[in-house]
Amino acid sequence: MVKNQIKDRIFSLLNEENLSSSKFADILNVQRSSISHIISGRNKPSLDFIQKVLRNFPAINPDWLIIGKGEMYNTVQQKEFIFDETPQKNIKTAKTEEIQPVFEEKEHVPPTNTKKTDDILPKTRNIERIIVFYDDGTFEELNPKKNK
Description:
The protein is mainly alpha-helical. It contains six helices and two strands. Helix 2 crosses helix 3. The N and C termini lie far apart (81 Å). Mean pLDDT is 77; it is low at 84-96.
């Protein structure tokens, strides 16, 4: 039987991952009631909800979750860069232990700017005014010259 509604696919995901709806809500950082409302069919999941599912369960096939097309889990590694149109051929995978950092020694090049810091910045700088914004929408302007 093909599950046509997204609520059924989310329910299948919970069963496949062996998660309770409350644990699923905790993982997604959403209210527990929102999960029960989606599964019961009362509410449809928002785009934000679907994005949270896909971020927290990267193995889930987005086409399956959103439109019910394909398998539940990704079978092919998807591109990480959506705008990179260069085909990625001959990609080799390695275990973390096999990866060795590569450090290149760079020749020290002295800075070409011969100006001193004193020539760039003014000798003295004084505070002209300070504006403080409060969360109630008001503000206060402080002028150190007037307060002396």
